[in-house]
Design goal:
heterodimer; A: alpha+beta; Multidrug efflux transporter AcrB transmembrane fold; Alpha-Beta Plaits; 6 strands; about 65% helix; B: alpha+beta; Gyrase A, domain 2; 4 domains; four-stranded antiparallel β-sheet; elongated
């Protein structure tokens, strides 16, 4: 079985102007969205509290929203998470509340009245919980909390429960954002250095422009669709950056090889033939990696959703940019045979005793 | 040309053995257990407790699947395993009731836990299951910011008093000591006094750097902490806070708490399995104080100890160890704030002791008290949540000041514990929670399932494709991929690196990338065949030519991984670790191992006509590779 039965060299570069214009346009759109609309940053970057509440039956988001709105905390986001009965609530950081307190209050408010699908015993549990959190923390006894936990365990799976709480102080948030940007910057610089050592600067610039284009497009998609941009998503973007640079590397490797073997051909012909020679491999390897990320997208659940999405998008853009953007930029920069194929020094003939 | 020397095969076999051994523990699962540790500083879990626990369970007819005494962190802990969770729950309730006779003042923490069911011989080579992060097993995570500036301020405050005392003792006249920012400013009317003070302070406090100056005609001596002393103060404060946290968290009875320094001024606390954040925070944020007091040796006091009379006015009753009563005077000799250091040492008879250092003012008072109370007992009490517990009672053997020793402690262990408690009684610097995460156990289980599912299905999809598209070479690639997965899991198990949900995702992603190398090789081999190379040559050329490209692509990926590791935190760091390790194992298995298998299969066949690498299509229309 062979998928790609390519008879002659495909003139990729003939359409490069069109593709480059399209790339430039989408790039500008993405940048525009990033500047004017920004990213829907997760609380890891902004600071605040996020909690996940699991109900027994599909939750009434409007009711939850209005219940929390009564607390008067301003911009509170309530959305379903994964399934209709799981709800994610994001609370902005608030002065005067220590970590976790906000979540406790929200939980008390939400469980004040029975929610659909709950067992009737849950009412008692909720009342006990409301009573428990009324006490200041110092007065809570081990017995009371153990008893409460015991009851919670007994009724587990039958009542609304808090599944996850995350609190991030604003200071940590800005630090993580800074570290993230620094990581992105360092990865770009080091990959560029590596490529510059390995090939020559025209390729290195071309590869990094192409991949920066990928990163901006992926992040831009997150901005356009208001998908949540979290720390794992940033990790995915960086991983994809490292991964899809490969593609450019492989094409450039071939370009170098073909410069050596096709002595009469022009730079455009060499690039075309190099891409043609690698295209089947490119599509198969990326197809395999995509199989992985797509299964992650399908089976990974809500926690991995955006992570897998960023990987999938990144790989797709990576293939596109390696084929149509990187090589084209290298060509615009004027890659010549002399840049790549170092003149071989003739060894002096010696007579060694 | 396609034959490996023997040593290469040996390396592969060794790697496989390593992989199998260290992957194995992950398949044994966990058995429910109950762990018992002491909450009291004065009681330690020991073999006595172990047999007592076993006796209690035997008497109640509860079947146990093994009991051990292990040291968790600094605390010895008794573990008892059970067959099922039902027995575990019954045993826990029973032990709680029997061991803690007074529920209001528990001596032991009896906590349910899951312990790996790894066989002894695997444990002996440190083959343990992968260490799951909080997002996979559920629990709480805190990140605390330590206010180290406050620790420095405290130290300066102490030094200010000490300098004042010193100058008075040495009869050096000064016109006032003030704290300005991070320095002590001492004014003098007389420049000669300034010079004298400089000498005296220099001799007494090596931690202070002195600078002479003059302000408005007055001579001024500016004392600042030397950079080394400043750093030492901060380091001590941080490690003392960590010790304090350790002690407090032990009380929670968490199976495997993680308390670590992060960066220069942060502490990470991870408590797997704890669901009640409120209580965890309450305990972590508690303030404990330490006081030294005299034992009431009056006849009234002694009568109160025997239980024959009420506690006399001006005294209080406390308990030592397992509940022996002791009556102490209310007057405090020194408190935890005045304690500058406590170290376990040996006395002149080479017996374990704790040497204690107080600040000047406490030292002066100590001198007065010891002079007046020679040969009388003194006690050190730790107050937590308003309840005092006597750590030690010792007889005053002489007149001493700010430096003295507590001897007669019996074992080095006791001396270490006491020194630790003396140091850790209070937090050295205030702390604030700046990040908090709570993950429910059901969510953790779902995360594991989701991660596992996506890895397995991804693997199946890739395997199916590879086998169909590349025939035998595809099978070899899949074999290499499976070995890669095994080695990665083995490495993670051996290093006990924390596996998080992004970490599992990284395993899946790494597998996706690892197959890249094999596709590269197989395509290259096909290409060589297409050009008309003979099979043996095609294999050699294919592997050789693909190698440079594989290295290139992995280096760039590794760059991304390394920076994620350096700059990432929490779950993302988990991703980076798996990512980087995965790249290393994938180079090994995709290139080295798969070549080994191919060599084994075809290397020795002299007249190899075709390669089963799927159909190799030639532009001319002819088809090479018979088994296409």
């Amino acid at each position: 079985m062979e998928f790609f039965r390519i008879r002659r060299t495909i003139p990729f570069m003939r359409y490069s102007l069109f593709f480059n214009a399209a790339s430039a346009l989408t790039f500008l759109i993405a940048v525009g969205f990033l500047i004017f609309r920004g990213l829907n940053l997760s609380i890891e970057f902004t600071g605040g509290t996020v909690m996940e509440v699991s109900y027994r039956a599909p939750a009434d988001l409007e009711k939850i929203r209005s219940a929390i709105a009564r607390l008067g905390w301003g911009d509170v986001q309530v959305q379903s998470f994964g399934t209709a009965s799981d709800v994610m609530i994001r609370l902005p950081p608030r002065q005067g509340f220590s970590s976790g307190q906000q979540a406790e209050i929200v939980m008390t408010v939400l469980t004040a009245e029975p929610s659909p699908g709950e067992a009737p015993e849950c009412a008692g549990l909720h009342a006990a919980y409301a009573e428990f959190v009324k006490h200041p923390q110092v007065e809570r006894t081990i017995e009371a909390s153990t008893a409460l936990l015991g009851r919670q365990r007994e009724l587990a799976g039958r009542c609304a429960e808090m599944r996850r709480v995350e609190f991030v102080g604003p200071q940590v948030g800005s630090e993580l954002a800074y570290d993230g940007a620094l990581a992105l910057f360092c990865v770009c610089i080091f990959i560029m250095l590596y490529l510059a050592v390995r090939f020559e600067w025209k390729f290195s610039v071309a590869a990094i422009v192409a991949n920066f284009h990928d990163v901006v497009l992926v992040v831009g998609m997150f901005s356009i669709f208001r998908w949540e941009f979290s720390l794992p998503v940033l990790a995915a973007v960086l991983a994809v950056l490292g991964y899809s640079v490969n593609e450019s590397v492989i094409i450039f490797d071939r370009v170098r090889e073909h410069f050596r073997t096709m002595r009469k051909a022009s730079a455009t012909e060499v690039i075309d033939s190099a891409i043609t020679a690698t295209i089947s491999r490119t599509i198969i390897t990326h197809g395999c990696t995509l199989m992985m990320t797509v299964t992650m997208l399908l089976f990974g659940g809500p926690a991995l959703h955006y992570f897998a999405l960023a990987l999938t998008l990144g790989i797709c853009f990576g293939v596109y940019s390696s084929v149509f953007v990187a090589a084209a930029i290298a060509r615009w920069l004027g890659v010549k045979r002399e840049d790549l194929v170092k003149p071989v020094k003739k060894e002096e003939q010696q007579v060694v005793p | 040309m396609n034959r490996y020397p023997l040593w290469k095969y040996l390396i592969i076999i060794a790697a496989l053995c390593f992989g199998v051994l260290y992957t194995l523990p992950n398949f044994f699962g966990e058995s429910p257990a109950v762990q018992i540790a002491s909450v009291k500083a004065t009681v330690r879990a020991d073999t006595g407790l172990l047999s007592r626990v076993q006796d209690i369970l035997r008497a109640a007819g509860i079947e146990q699947a093994g009991a051990t005494l292990e040291t968790v962190g600094l605390n010895p802990t008794v573990f008892v395993r059970f067959r099922d969770e039902d027995t575990q729950k019954r045993a826990r309730d029973l032990l709680e009731q029997k061991l803690n006779t007074d529920p209001s003042d528990p001596t032991y923490v009896v906590a349910p836990n899951l312990v790996p069911r790894t066989p002894k011989w695997l444990q002996a080579i440190h083959a343990l299951p992968m260490y799951l992060g909080l997002d996979l097993r559920g629990g709480v995570h805190f990140l605390m910011q330590v206010d180290l500036q406050e620790a420095v301020n405290k130290r300066l405050q102490g030094l200010e008093g000490d300098v004042r005392t010193l100058l008075r003792d040495k009869d050096v006249r000064h016109a006032g000591i003030a704290r300005e920012g991070e320095s002590l400013v001492i004014r003098f009317r007389d420049p000669a006094a300034s010079a004298q003070a400089s000498g005296v302070i220099h001799d007494a406090f090596a931690d202070l750097a002195l600078r002479e100056d003059s302000v408005g005609g007055d001579a001024v001596l500016i004392a600042t902490l030397t950079p080394a002393a400043r750093k030492a103060t901060q380091d001590n404060a941080l490690s003392q806070n960590i010790t304090t946290l350790h002690n407090r968290i032990n009380e929670l009875g968490v199976a495997e708490p993680v308390i670590q320094q992060q960066g220069s001024d942060r502490i990470v606390v991870e408590l797997p399995g704890v669901q009640d954040t409120a209580r965890a925070k309450d305990i972590i944020g508690r303030t404990a104080t330490l006081e030294a007091r005299l034992v009431d040796v009056s006849p009234e006091g002694q009568a109160a100890v025997m239980g024959n009379a009420p506690v006399p006015f001006g005294s209080e009753q406390f308990t030592v160890g397992r509940g022996a009563p002791v009556v102490l005077k209310k007057e405090v000799i020194f408190s935890g704030q005045q304690l500058q250091g406590a170290q376990a040492t040996f006395d002149e008879r080479q017996q374990p002791a704790v040497s204690i250092e107080l600040n000047e003012s406490a030292g002066r008072y100590m001198r007065k008290v010891t002079r007046e109370n020679l040969k009388k007992p003194m006690a050190v009490v730790l107050f937590e949540k308003g309840r005092g517990e006597v750590l030690t009672v010792a007889t005053i053997q002489g007149e001493f000041g700010s430096r003295f020793q507590i001897t007669g402690l019996g074992t080095t262990q006791t001396a270490n514990d006491l020194a630790l408690l003396l140091r850790a009684g209070a937090l050295a610097a205030p702390m604030q929670i700046i990040e908090e995460r709570l993950i429910g156990p059901s969510l953790g289980k779902e995360n594991i399932a989701a991660g596992f599912r996506s890895t397995v299905w991804g693997f199946v999809a890739i395997s199916a494709f590879m086998c169909l598209y590349y025939a035998v070479f595809g099978i070899v690639s899949v074999l290499g991929l499976a070995i890669n997965l095994m080695l990665l899991v083995a490495l993670l198990s051996m290093l006990q690196a924390t596996l998080t949900l992004p970490g599992i995702a990284a395993i899946a992603f790494t597998l996706g990338m690892a197959i890249d190398a094999n596709v590269l090789i197989n395509e290259r081999v096909r290409e060589e065949l297409r050009k008309g190379a003979v099979p043996q040559q095609a294999i050699a050329q294919g592997y050789e030519r693909a190698f440079a490209t594989i290295i290139d692509s992995n280096v760039t990926t590794l760059i991304a991984g390394v920076f994620l590791f350096l700059l990432g935190s929490g779950p993302v760091r988990g991703f980076a670790v798996v990512h980087c390790l995965g790249i290393l194992t994938s180079i090994f298995s995709a290139v080295f191992v798969s070549r080994g298998i191919v060599n084994l299969l075809y290397g020795s066949r002299k007249r190899l006509q075709s390669l089963p690498i799927g159909q190799v299509w030639r532009p001319g229309g002819a088809v090479a590779g018979a088994k296409g």
